[in-house]
Amino acid sequence: CPTKACGYFKWDNSASKFTVHPTNAYALDRGNPRLSSFHKAPIGYNVLQESELSQKEKTIIEFRLHSSTEISIHADHNPTLLPALQKMDNSKWNDDLQKWIIPATSHAYARALQQITVAPNLNIQIKRLSNALKQVLYETSGQSDVSVDIVESDVEEAIYQIRDTALWKTLKPFQREGVRCCLRRQGRLLLADDMGKKLQALVFSLVYQHAWPVLIICPKETQQEWFDLVVKWLPVEKEDVHISTNKTNILGKTRKRKTTHKGLYVKTQTKNDRNKKSKYNNTRSDSDDDDDDSDDEAQDVYEYGQEDEDEGVSLFSPHKFHIISNELTNRFSKELLERHFRVVICDSSEEYLKFRPRARAQKDFIPVLQNCERLLLLSNEFDLTKPLALYTQLSVLRRDLFSDFRRYGQHYCNAVQNVFGWDYGGTSNQVELQYIVDNVILLKRTKEDIQDQLPLN
Fold first, then answer.
1. Would you say the pTM of this structure is higher than 0.85?
2. Residue 363 in contact with residue 256, Cβ under 8 Å?
3. Which residues contact 235 (CB under 8 A, 6 or more apart)?
4. Has the keyword Nucleotidyltransferase been applied to this entry (predicted)?
């Protein structure tokens, strides 16, 4: 203080990276042996050790996925660190990148971390791989040959149960491989083939027949198409498949229709209803019979206080397939969650599950897809250049990998905070996201990939 009238001082932060806790640094400068209560070891030892470490600049080491087969290591120039980098298993120096390269496996990554952290007399700051990438690396490269063989044997055993069905015999080779890929991934897959997705979805539901009933979510205009495919290819009757087209159908509650006409309610009455009423009306004349309509025709009867009741079908009914439109699914997410469908097929997921931050109805329905045991998303478009729109599809398929939207946005969407809030419209770490999607989430084959399996025109 210029006036020296107060007891405050201004702390100089220009040398903050070379100092330790202000209390200890101040005591060291004045020769005061009293230190803070955080120190348990002898005073001189702590002061000298911390002061030496504080004078060493941090060496930053960053791990990043360079390609589908390589992990790059960028390290600040430090002669002491060089021997540790050279001793890493299967490591090599890339002159073009000016980085060290190791194989993209969970074992190589773990060994590199172990050898770097034991380097002596280094103040190291390590930027590790993301948790999602580490999990995928373990799933794809950390399994032993025995575990891989067990998975393949389980897949072929499941296929053996349906190999004699007409549906399986109809599939093309690429469609059969798609079903196998879905089974390897424990029945959770995003299928984005250019063609042939619906038949693969039917085989998917047939493999998990023990977990029926099946919930099919699709646009309203394709409900009848799904109904026809299910009845044609699967061992079910028409009575086993229910299409929910309105509130009554999905909830199974009565719908009261009140059509007002000059103060009266209009009730539709058939001939059978009128015959039942005639038993109690003995004064009816014979001429009234001539006015009766056919059994298939209806007559509007105006009765005060009458209401039409239309019984629906409950989600807890014994139907084997429930086909529901996107609109109804959003509106009745609570009822669908209570029903707890174990097998779910979602058609046109790129539109229905497109991430919309303000869509509350969609957020309420997400647990229905996350909690089901088997989930197949059928998508006509999958664009990795727009990672923001993909978040909902990724999170419902693999909640263990994508559980925090803000972390996802900062890591893959290059999130930037401005005066209006956070902007998640960018892209970052695309190589990493592509690796995760290709290995555990997505299966996409274009017409060029399967051209040899298509019929000649």
1. no
2. no
3. none
4. no
Tokens encoding 48: 């000298």
Which amino acid type is present at position 171?
A: L
Q: Please report, for residues 115, 120, 131, 134, the alpha-carbon distance to residue 112 in angstroms, rounded to integers and kept in the order given.
A: 5, 15, 17, 14
pLDDT tens series, the chain, 457 aa: 555 556 555 656 655 554 455 555 555 554 444 444 444 444 444 444 444 444 457 788 899 999 999 999 998 877 778 888 888 888 899 888 889 999 999 999 998 888 887 666 677 888 999 999 999 999 988 776 767 777 889 999 999 999 999 999 999 999 999 999 999 999 999 999 999 999 999 999 999 999 999 999 999 999 999 999 999 999 999 999 998 877 656 654 434 444 444 333 334 444 455 554 444 444 444 444 444 444 444 444 333 333 333 345 566 778 899 999 888 888 888 888 888 899 999 999 988 888 876 655 566 788 999 999 999 999 998 889 999 999 999 999 999 999 899 999 999 999 888 888 888 889 999 999 999 999 999 999 999 988 888 776 5
Question: How far apart, in whole angstroms, are the C-alpha atoms of residue 62 and residue 77?
Answer: 13
Burial of 136 (0-12, 13-18, 19+ CB in 10 A): buried
- Return the beta strands (E) in 255-378 as ranges: 255-257, 260-261, 264-270, 298-303, 308-310, 321-325, 343-347, 374-378
CB 248 within 8 A of CB 254: yes
Helix (H, G, I), strand (E, B), or coil: what is residue 381? coil
Amino acid occupying residue 126: I
Written as one string, the DSSP assignment of 58-92 is PEEEEEEE-SSSEEEEEE---TTTHHHHHTSTT-E
CB of 72 within 8 A of CB of 97?
yes
